[in-house]
Amino acid sequence: MSAESSNLSNIEHRAIIKYFVKKGKTPKEIFEDMVSVLQESAPSYTMVKKWARLFQQGRESCEDDPRPGRPVTVVTEENVRKIEKLVLADQRIKLWQIAEELQISKERVGEIIHEHMNMRKISARWIPKMLTPFDKQWRLQTSKVFFQLVGDNIDEICDRIVTVDETWVRQYDPESKQESMQWTKKEERPPKKFKVQKSASKLMATIFWDSEGTRGSRTEATWEVIARSAVLQDNASVHTARVSRQALKDTGFSEIDHPPYSPDLALSDYFLFSNLKKELRDRRFVDDNQMKMAVESHFDCKEKEYFLGGLKALYTRCEKYISLEGDYIEK
């Protein structure tokens, strides 16, 4: 049977179930027969059992029962006030709980909350740390200093910045549920995806980069004079160790301050590594050499504007930091 002919309506599914019930077949046998013919477009076993039971009890119609519905008058100012009171008392309350409490339908409750109260239910956002007033002040002050440093010379400052960071690259890192989303028609069943784990085998990638690109993609002759370069890196212990700081000082680099607990201000975290891992995700690598080649290939094909854009985004983020008074930036 072709894919088009196997996409039957719900009523046609029920008619088939009714036929098999009259033939004396069990719900399990009916389901197995329908799956063998209709495959992915077959109804669920729960649906087959439900309608088989109804037909066994004497039901003849394959149509849905008419719904009496409720008048739109349930959307009243009084109900809006009652629902608002319940929601404010328990912000995790479910629609069905409100519906039972007020004896109105879930659909009307949803309509009141979304359209009349202008509210939505969202998950809490994970943040690296609950910031203290001191942390926020530090982040705010650092952003203001960088903002003043840039002034009207954003291109000049971005050309001076050199940054370095480390990240793990795995032989296999499965794509996220969000990344695997795809468009389907309403009557189609959602695609299935097996749950897989990240591989234990991984490689630490250390990336130096600036407005021209990554360190590996440039020759020595193309590097700017060290004395006019400024290092911007996060507060990982390897970066803040005394020997590291002294090495930077000895080679002539100046440092741009980076506040603690601030991955949303770390150039590699919010820009470079997130894009790298998005491209490598769901790809399998045989060994470390393949992983190295994949990382190098990712950066080699990027133009200068790509890296410059990542650096310029720091200016925009500092601007947001100032407006948020040092709080974390939304993704």
From TrEMBL:
GO biological process: methylation
UniProt key word Methyltransferase: yes
UniProt keyword Transferase present: yes
Highest taxon in the source lineage: Eukaryota
Keywords: Methyltransferase, Transferase
GO MF annotations, alphabetized: methyltransferase activity; nucleic acid binding
Stored Pfam families: HTH_48, Transposase_1
Gene3D superfamilies on file: 1.10.10.1450, Ribonuclease H-like superfamily/Ribonuclease H
InterPro entries: Mos1_HTH, RNaseH_sf, Transposase-MT_Hybrid, Transposase_1
Domain Mos1 transposase HTH: 14-58
Protein name from the UniProt record: Histone-lysine N-methyltransferase SETMAR
